[in-house]
Amino acid sequence: MNCREDETLDDLLRDNLRVVQGKKGYRFSVDAVLLAAFATLGRGSQVCELGAGSGVISVLLVQRDKSCSIKALEVQDSLWDRAVRTVKLNGLEDNIEVIKGDIRRVREIFPAGGFDLVVANPPFWRIGEGLLPEDPEVAAACHEVVVTLEEVIGAAAYLLRLGGKLALIQRAARLDEVIRLSHQYRVPVKRIRMVHPHQGRPANLVLTEGTKGAKPGVTVLSPLVIYEDTGIYTSEVISLYYGEER
Fold this sequence. Notes:
The protein contains seven helices and eleven strands. With 246 residues, the chain is of the alpha/beta class. The protein has a single domain, classed as Rossmann fold. Strand 4, helix 3 (77-89) and strand 5 form a beta-alpha-beta unit. It starts with 6 loop residues before the first strand and ends with a helix. Residues 33-126 form the Methyltransferase small domain. It holds the Pfam family MTS. One of its GO terms (molecular function) is N-methyltransferase activity.
């Protein structure tokens, strides 16, 4: 059975993909869709997703290139179980292996330098920032109660081969921290795309991609706007969800 009474089976809106999610607790948002589209994915890439949630980003990456192979790491039992079922539901077992494990213990799980790409949607809020949700799934996903941004970047640096890439999405207010930590762990940021809720509004999110061992120099891409003035998604975001402009 793919879906239980306390879960929903949701359409990812493209290529007949579906995802198993809890009715309560953590549920994926547009962040995952943006990150999956932003990351540089080469032919036959060996990919690691840190903090897989329900497996949405890994599933979307395989739809971009079915030659890639992904190890999706998730520490929460409930989310790990849903991610496993999401992968099976979409028939992607040959591409994606969902592993139960802690990002902070990644050296015990994977060898060093084995991946071409690491993707992660780390918690947005430091301890003491924002309102900590009562639900433990949401708290761990959105706040640094289990893993910190620095621990995610440090784990990625260990996992990446020389020239491998780290793609992240984070609050725009923490861009300076992402840049500092990426430089510290020798995965300097090379691509940046600011994400704005509406045209003319300040960015609230940022997509970054670092390259292990790269020389200094950053490309700032055109901004991505989520909503039209009417409140509907922009044509670019719609194309990311559906695979084509509508």
